[in-house]
Each structure stands twice: as C-alpha cells, then as structure tokens.
Amino acid sequence: MPTPAQEGDDPDLIRTEYANLKDAAWWKSLGIDGVILYAWGMGKYLPIARAIHDAGIFLVVYMDTSGLFYPWRYWKTLTLQIWNREKNKRGNLKGPLFACLHIIKNHTFGALDWGRRKHLKMANLISFPSPAALLSILDRQWLYGKQICKKLALIPNPISSEHTLNPVQPKHNLIVAVGRWDDCFQKNTNLLM
After folding, report:
1. Would you tell me how many other CB atoms lie within 10 Å of the CB of residue 149?
2. Whether pLDDT at 15 is above 80
3. Of the candidates 113, 175, 110, the residue with the CA atom closest to the CA atom of residue 140
4. For the ranges 16-30, 36-50, 152-166, which has the lowest average pLDDT?
5. Within 10 Å of residue 128's Cβ, how many Cβ atoms?
6. How much is the pTM?
7. pLDDT category, 71, cuts 50, 70, 90?
8. 13 against 55, higher pLDDT
9. Would you say 106 and 86 are in contact if contact means Cβ atoms under 8 Å apart?
C-alpha cells in the first residue's frame, strides 16, 4: 500500500513509496514467493508487473469480473459506459464530445490493447472471477496470442460460509449494499438507492 501509514494498519501490511513498486530490486528484497496484482491488466500498471516479473516472483494478474474491456464483443455496453462516464465527468456539453472521441479510439486502434497485452505477458497466471471475463480474452487468442491464453485460469471470488444458504436456519430478508458511494460511473449509486 502507498505511504503514509494509517491508524489501524495491520502489522503485516507493507507501505511504501509508489516508485518502489516499479523497482525489481525492491520487490526482490521482500523475500516473497508470489504476488497477486489487482491491476486488471491495465497498461498503466505495466511497470509494476514488469518489476515483479523481473524480480523472479510468481505473478498472478487479477482481472475484472465483467471483462468489458474488449469493445468488439461488448460494443453496446462499453459504449454506454464511456458515454455515461464522460457526461458525468464533463457535463452535458463537453461530455458527449469527449465520449465520441473515446468511443472512436477504443473501437479502433485502442482495441489492439497493447498495454494490456504487455502487462499480461509478465504474468505467470492470469485469474478471472467469472467465465464471461475469461472468455473475453480466450476468444481473442488471435489478438492476445497462445502464450497469454495458456496462462488463463477461472478462480471465482470466495464466498464466506455465513453468506451461503443454510437450510436449517430460516432466511431473513436483508439487503446489503457495499461499494464506493462516490463512484457513480462504476457503482451506479443512484440506481442502487
């Protein structure tokens, strides 16, 4: 985690400067066997993935649940997300203009996904929590290559036993919402409420 230390930090939590995350020597100095990197294969985190890889540490790259990053498969959904994000961020006048530019970029040369491909090359294992997300890359073997597709694994998010149905105990109707309340784009809090 980034510095500075916070009250209530777990004693096992390592906090460091962001620059260290891009340094293979720093990763090697930790003496660890593996890292699960929650960076969804995003190109902007490539320097971190490369540093972990270069340190000789087993790297698991954790991918997002939806797998919506591939535009030609999820054209309508991705286009709507970009449109809503830009309108929320930039308003009703600038938002549509920026949305159109992003949509054109993401559905043309941006779809080649150079940054994500380089990031995924660094991984020893690429885990997906849902079959649809895994298929978003597996079905694009022609784009991502056989080497990357051989590393894919479906690892669903674990569900704690207290959240599973127990036929002995009667179930009470209960709604629990957990999320980033200020993230209207991803979590759609207005609809949730």
Report:
1. 18
2. yes
3. 113
4. 152-166
5. 23
6. 0.76
7. low
8. 55
9. no
Three-state SS string over 23-69 comes to: CHHHHHHCCCCEEEEECCCCHHHHHHHHHHHHCCCEEEEECCCCCCC
Question: How far is 60 from 58, CA to CA, in rounded Å?
Answer: 7
* 53 within 8 A of 59, measured Cβ to Cβ: yes
pLDDT tier at 185 (50, 70, 90 boundaries)?
low
CA distance 99 to 94: 9
Q: Which pairs count as long-range contacts for 169-174, CB under 8 Å and 24+ apart, including other chains?
A: none
Which of 123, 121, 117 lies closest to 59, judged by CA? 123
Query: Would you give the end-to-end CA distance of the chain in angstroms?
Result: 31
The answer to whether residues 50 and 74 touch, using CB atoms and an 8 Å cutoff, is: no
Q: Are 61 and 137 in contact (CB under 8 A)?
A: no
Q: Is 150 exposed, middle or buried (0-12, 13-18, 19+ CB in 10 A)?
A: exposed
